[in-house]
Each structure stands twice: as C-alpha cells, then as structure tokens.
Design goal:
Elements lengths: L2 E5 L2 E3 L5 E8 L8 E6 L6 E6 L5 E3 L7 E6 L4 E6 L8 E7 L2 E2 L3 E5 L2
Parallel strand pairs: 2-11
Antiparallel strand pairs: 1-3, 3-8, 4-5, 4-9, 5-6, 7-8, 9-10, 9-11
C-alpha cells in the first residue's frame, strides 16, 4: 500500500523559506514521477512542481526561480524547497505520486 506523508509546513514571514518533505512508503520513488500541488479554499489544486523519474523538473510560472523540487532516493523522500515566500504562496501543499495523494501540509506566509 502506497502512502505519502507531507511535513514541514508552518507560518513564515514574507521573504522567508520553508522546506516541505514528502515521505513515501510502499513505493520506490526513483522509479516514478512526483508532483507537488497546492490548494487554497474555494480554488482548484494547482500544480506547483514536477520531477520525472529521470530527474527532469518543471515548475509553475508563479514559483519558477523560487521553488526547487528534489528527492533523496536513499531516504525515499521528495522535497520542495521554497524560498522568497510571498503571501500568495499561502496554501495547503500536497504531494502526489502514481495517483496517490498525501494528506497535505499547511503553509502560511504572513507578517
């Protein structure tokens, strides 16, 4: 059974940084593509970042240059490093792999 568990969210001031983690079990992450999404109340989930099994990455224009997706194959964890955070980055962030979603972690950017 595949499970994804996000962590690392919290409250941060504008301009600050956070690193989100997505720990996977029941699956070996290096063989699969992985996505990070985010969602705010009343809106659809937005694809933020993608990493293919081969390590190629892609980002939403709104986060390009500020967010970085990476993975640690030994730990079976995918990360989302978020720098220069803005209030509009406030959302619940989810990881997704092989159609499975994590439970989400809340990120709030506010002074």
């Amino acid at each position: 059974q595949v499970q994804l568990v996000e962590s690392g969210g919290g409250l941060v001031q504008p301009g600050g940084s956070l690193r989100l983690s997505c720990a996977a079990s029941g699956i070996i992450i290096r063989y699969y593509a992985m996505d990070w999404y985010r969602q705010t109340p009343g809106k659809q989930r937005e694809l933020v970042a993608t990493m293919t099994s081969g390590g190629l990455t892609n980002y939403a224009d709104s986060v390009k240059g500020r967010f970085t997706i990476s993975r640690d194959n030994a730990k079976n964890i995918v990360y989302l490093q978020m720098n220069s955070l803005k209030p509009e980055d406030t959302a619940t962030y989810y990881c997704k792999m092989v159609g499975i979603w994590g439970q989400g972690t809340q990120v709030t950017v506010s002074s």
